[in-house]
């Protein structure tokens, strides 16, 4: 096995004086997806923000393709292949769909054409302004815009939250397509445990800012004790 794409080594990080992540270590390979599970407030989004370089690191290091990038600012990371779709799904409300897509585009396999193939809804609405889209369409646009930077690593923070089931289905299909295509790694924060574990090969479970459990997703799917303890049994409870 070669170098991992991304490595967090004993990372302790937070906001100002507040430490949120505690001694987190993880490796992300060049292809495939990692699920990040855990209850509200355990530090899932903070982990994403730390990978992007938005938090204060107290200890530990972050490596990208073997290079220590602990001190690289967010824009360096964005320019070098790490894309992030925030939990708040920020799009530019006063730009058109197409302008949102092209504003940060970088060269690669993802182009307007391939994006519109994946998200026909965005093609139909390419001249609409960002603020004229439904919540689901805004989420598609946020993901599509991240893909247009042709990243090596895509961070998705609760991409299915609060969306209609039909939209969630479309997004799940899109994520599967992304993973089946060219080399791409995805970190998926998701509270819908069943969906998260279905889409990913490996999973980690956070509890109070620390990694409490790691397992292949297929294994964790059957480990109701761990899921009940650290994630809540949403799977059984909701169906
Ligand atoms: N900007 C910030 N400044 C200070 N503390 C913060 C900030 N953002 C988050 N926190 C704190 O960090 C902790 C972890 O929050 P985080 O948003 O990472 O959790 P989460 O697992 O993503 O939760 P959720 O499931 O609700 O999205 C919480 O205690 C939260 O209050
Ligand atoms: Mg969060």
Task: Note down, in words, how this protein is organized.
The chain is α/β, with parallel strands linked by helices and 239 residues long. The chain has a domain at 32-40 and 84-238: Rossmann fold. The protein is built from eleven helices and ten strands. It has a six-stranded mixed sheet, with helices on both faces. It has a four-stranded antiparallel sheet with strand order 2-1-4-5, covered by helices on one side. A hairpin with a 2-residue loop joins β4 (56-64) and β5 (67-68). The longest helix has 16 residues, at 165-180. The protein is globular and about 45 Å long. The protein starts with 5 loop residues before the first strand and ends with a helix. The model is unreliable at 235-239 (pLDDT under 50). The site of adenosine-5'-triphosphate has 12 residues, from β2 and α1. Magnesium ion binds next to α1. One of its GO terms (biological process) is L-amino acid transport. Residues 6-233 form the ABC transporter domain.
What order do the helices and strands follow?
EEEHEEHEHHHHEHEHEEHHH
Q: Give the number of helices.
A: 11
Radius of gyration, rounded?
17 Å
The coarse overall form would be: globular
The CATH superfamily of the domain at 32-40 and 84-238 is identified as P-loop containing nucleotide triphosphate hydrolases
| SS strand fraction | 25-35%
Structural category? alpha/beta
N-to-C span: 40 Å
Query: What kind of oligomer do you see?
Result: single chain
Beta strand count: 10
Query: Helicity level, as a percent range?
Result: 25-40%
Main beta-sheet strand count, sense and barrel state = 6 strands, mixed
What's the level 1 CATH class of the domain at 32-40 and 84-238?
Alpha Beta
**pLDDT under 50 segments (min length 5)?**
235-239
CATH topology description of the domain at 32-40 and 84-238: Rossmann fold
Bound molecules: adenosine-5'-triphosphate, magnesium ion
Strand order of the largest sheet: 6-7-8-3-9-10
Give the overall pLDDT as a whole number: 94
In the CATH classification, which architecture of the domain at 32-40 and 84-238 applies? 3-Layer(aba) Sandwich
